[in-house]
Amino acid sequence: MSTVMRVSSCTLNLHALSFSSNLRSLLLGLSLASASGARYCLTPELSLCGYSCEDHFLEQDTEEHCWEVLAALLRSGRCQTMLCDFGMPVLFGGARYNCRVLCCAGRVQAIRPKMSLAGDGNYREGRWFAAWGGGAESYRLPQAFLDLCTEGTYSGASPSVPFGFVALRSRDGISVGCETCEELWTPSNPSVPQALLGVDVIGNGSGSHHELRKLGQRQGLMQASTMKNGGCYVYSNLRGCDGTRLYFDGSSSIAVNGEVLASADQFALDQVEVITATVDVDSIRSHRAARPSFAAQAAALQRAPPGASKGAPPPPYPPPLTFVDIPIPLAAPPLASRYDRIPTSPISPRAYSPEQECVLGPGSWLYDYMRRSRAGGFLLPLSGGADSAAVAAIVGALTVRMYEGYVRGEDRTLVDEVDRVCGDKKPGSARDIANAMLHTVYMGTENSSSQTRARAKALAEEIGCYHTDLNVDSITSAIINVFQIATGRRPMFACNGGTGGEDLALQNIQARTRMVVAYLFGQLLPWCRNRSGFLLVLGSANVDEGLRGYMTKYDCSSADLNPIGGISKADLKNMLVYAAREYGWPTLSSIVAAPPTAELRPTTGDGEHTQTDEEDMGMTYAELTAFGKLRKQGRCGPVSMYRRLLGMWHNLEPAEVAAKVQRFFYFYALNRHKMCTVTPSYHAEGYSPDDNRFDLRPFLYDVSWGWQKERMAELVKKEEELQEGGGMT
Ligand SMILES: Nc1ncnc2c1ncn2[C@@H]1O[C@H](COP(=O)(O)OP(=O)(O)OC[C@H]2O[C@@H]([n+]3cccc(C(=O)O)c3)[C@H](O)[C@@H]2O)[C@@H](O)[C@H]1O
Ligand SMILES: Nc1ncnc2c1ncn2[C@@H]1O[C@H](COP(=O)(O)OP(=O)(O)OP(=O)(O)O)[C@@H](O)[C@H]1O
Ligand SMILES: NC(=O)CC[C@H](N)C(=O)O
């Protein structure tokens, strides 16, 4: 009979530093894994404290509490016959490491520190942790931890465990190793030597966040790794907002020899999801041994070079791997049920479209934020335009999912949350939840059109929101009057003979008034509805507006949270088309079809708005996406951006390309200060300009970009000469 093993991976919605709730989720995950017959159970990166503790990792309290949680897990009896892989920070010698702690037989068996830290984009692991670079050493478990373990657990067993690049070997000869998140993404990843040395199962406990169109890369790496190296790759990720702008997007999976056997959902609202598969361990060994090229490298690694221990290849490979024997078997017992013995067949994992990602990711992030902040719901200034409609659609779609989950009744947290938000009234539909949770306000001025007012009302009705329609003219004119009394001057719009500055000030006061009114309503609407608590104010500036600075500082773009601050206008429009169809909200289609306008200036005689966004900005949204991607992801300054666009925008003359690049960098630099105070928004886009965590830049620039402009002018001249000369030098 072949050797098979049941392995489980937990997807957990954890909250940084919320040790009690994390412990509850971990215990539920372990019990579901154990009930499914698993002999190995993997949890996400830093699963005992939560991934995003950030500078709290510098506090020894965080590690201390992790040891306390670990002792509670060991005392629960779940880590006896099942090998459990947890994540926590551990101080060893003079440095702190991001570790996997492997436990069974009620004890810690080994500790495996992360060897390649994540430091790009949103990650700063190097600020709190050191990367491990050696083999294995001996680590003495803290006495306080030993004291918390069940009496007798460590009597006769050493209080010291191997710490370093280790893999475990079970009593029945199955070996299990580790890889931690970023290690999968490195060129020389530890899976390779582990596979060559015969490790059967590699568990990757991860803290990997959502970014649009990123999941395919992660899955591709996993499948490529197991296809090339053979083996079972168990991947466990967090899911949810654990306290920052990031949304960890689950999708934990189990892959064997290049094929996926099980996969968890990317955006589900559940606290805990456990996937389990039966893995044919012999198929791993035969997959590897079938290729002479693999066997040749494996054999070379087994032959230790003179003076080095076995498995010590030349740099840049990882240090030698130490096998640690554990006192339990891992294979399914011969008398296990058929379900546990028959290897799981491969599946095609579910993949969401970018439109679905835009709806589901930010919605789930808002759900976690709302329940963890104990807010009563949301207040959204709804203008009848595309951006605020997109936010309404995201929250509306969330209410649909919340209602589905409520009816299923499987996730206790979700049921409690729906009851909390809806109060005494049990919801009979998603619209009932929307009515309790999403408050929309149209705040018109004399410059608003009847079309946007009607579209806002219609959309609110379709979703089921609690909608208010009001005018703010009396407030803005009162403010202008105060200004006039104080200065004796009254500003005018440009169309009435005012200067550009007067025109801008009159626009901005309307926009800023809306922010103040939004907060007033966010604070008092629950009171008007005989409820307690507060509403979170939602902002709706998109990533392109942020990049160009096409927004008023401290207007409705300043809010508590912005679910679309990391999403491009193009993706938002596609999302609206999708949501109109998927959820049956037809007003979204008419909103997409209308030209985007701020409605801050007076209309022309026939009531038409001549102020359109793209004309106002001096560039199109499509151009902004190109600039944004090249600036951030292409790592281009003005000159290299010009060079790249010259090869992309063939229909434009070199001077036109240069002029567009210069205009973009001028406005980007002029408005960069707006990114310092930008509303915390869901990180979704690789080219996000969010100054706070992701895109670290100065906020006071020399907006003339003089030197760069001169270099560009030289390049344009050279290009024109080349073109005139027919491309000859
Ligand atoms: N380097 C610097 N560091 C820090 N702060 C700086 C600064 N330079 C200016 N500032 C400050 O920033 C202010 C200028 O920024 P800001 O007040 O935003 O004003 P500003 O960028 O001049 O105007 C806002 C723009 O957003 C457009 N817009 C379009 C659509 C909708 C909305 C809307 O809000 O609904 C707005 C509007 O048409 C206009 O073009 C200055 O008055 C100054 O207080
Ligand atoms: N008449 C209005 N009523 C309520 N809120 C408004 C109104 N006008 C603008 N806002 C709020 O201010 C934000 C910024 O206004 P702006 O005109 O720039 O819209 P936008 O960013 O293009 O978004 P939208 O497409 O939703 O109009 C809007 O997203 C909306 O939340
Ligand atoms: N926590 C990590 O190591 C994350 C690394 C990786 N780049 C990811 O996004 O998945």
Automatic annotation (TrEMBL):
The keyword ATP-binding applies. It holds the Pfam family NAD_synthase. Residues 5-281 form the CN hydrolase domain. Keywords: ATP-binding, Ligase, NAD, Nucleotide-binding. InterPro entries: C-N_Hydrolase (IPR003010), C-N_Hydrolase_sf (IPR036526), Gln-dep_NAD_synthase (IPR014445), NAD/GMP_synthase (IPR022310), NAD_synthase (IPR003694), Rossmann-like_a/b/a_fold (IPR014729). It catalyses: deamido-NAD(+) + L-glutamine + ATP + H2O = L-glutamate + AMP + diphosphate + NAD(+) + H(+). Pathway: Cofactor biosynthesis; NAD(+) biosynthesis; NAD(+) from deamido-NAD(+) (L-Gln route): step 1/1. It comes from the Eukaryota. Gene3D superfamilies: Carbon-nitrogen hydrolase, HUPs. Its EC number is 6.3.5.1. In the C-terminal section; belongs to the NAD synthetase family. HAMAP family: NadE_glutamine_dep. PANTHER family: GLUTAMINE-DEPENDENT NAD(+) SYNTHETASE, NH 3 /GLUTAMINE-DEPENDENT NAD + SYNTHETASE. This is Glutamine-dependent NAD(+) synthetase. It comes from Tetraparma gracilis.
